[in-house]
Amino acid sequence: LNELTMIPKLFFTNNRIERLSVSYNKLNSISRDLFLSLKNSLEHLEMEHNKLFHLPDSLAQGARLRHLSLAYNQLDESPPLPGRIQTLSLAGNFLTSIPSALQTLEPGSIRYLDLSYNRICNLLPNEFLDWSSSLGTLNLRGNRIAQIYKNVFPASMPVKEINLSFNDLYYVHPQSFSNLSSSLHVLESSSTLFSGYLPFETEGGLENLSWLSFDNNDFHILKLYDISLFPYLKYLNLDYNRIVEISISNDYQNVSLSLSNMRISYNFLNSLHCRTFSYMPELRNLDLSYNRINNLTKHSFTNLPNLRYLSLAGNIIDSMESETFANLPKLEILELQGNNITYVSLNSFFNVSQIDVTFTLNISKNYIRYLEGE
Q1: Residue 32: HSE in the Cβ half-sphere, 13 Å Cα cutoff
Q2: Rounded to an integer, what distance in angstroms lies between the CA atom of residue 225 and that of residue 353?
Q3: Predicted local distance difference test score (pLDDT) of residue 374
Q4: pTM of the prediction?
């Protein structure tokens, strides 16, 4: 943290600077001559957390500039940009739309774009054209986006990760992601959707997802059939929703999910259907903490040969059938603290953890009066 209000002139005379960081100052303007003097040397420029509301057009002449961060300033539009920029952050400004300055970038240049925490309201067709042909990460977190229209993301954009969290998505066209089926692997959509459904209805584009975050939304019913539409999904976060049921429909038969991490904590589940998780043989981590689950049966956790972490903390469990946790050979951590358990049978843990696996069981903050078994 410093308090510079202007960049000293000594920078203007040193035309060999490759990396310049003047973040966390009180800069409110930049001389045009600075970028002219460094146009053939500067490769990395950081001007985050200042008071800049305008930058000179000479910035675009930075022939070697590849990494630029103007995050958390007071810009209401993007300045002219160097044509071969690779990473760009304009996060935390006052932008109301996708910057038109991006249209001047050379195709195949930019790979990372952060426009989070601005005031962008819409994503429109033709905003992501030739300039996005190498874009791998797009961060739109914390804007005011209410709608995403059809074919906003072109097939020429090989984006692997999109973050839409903390927007107000009331409408997502079913074909919004249809052009991205071969590239998109990570979709962050926390505190975004208000439809009550998972996922929003899409027609293609999400088939190759491996990471999906839909926490802090308003989902009520989780249908395993819907999850099966993402055959490569490894990580699913549904924390802080209003899920009351995990349902298995009749058309969900002989389907095996590839999930390895699943989070459903802080919801309203009061029971688990028989064999709810038996279709997830690759599951390693399962978090069901802080729901309203009141009892467990010997069919609650079957066919989970790879499960290592299971949390049921903070529920209202008062009973468990014998062998509830049986045949979980790789289980390392089982959290049952903060429930209403009064009786524990060690038979519930038959064939839990192989001999070379350290097993940790937390049953603190319960009402246990009896322990039985060997």
Answers
A1: 4
A2: 30
A3: 65
A4: 0.92
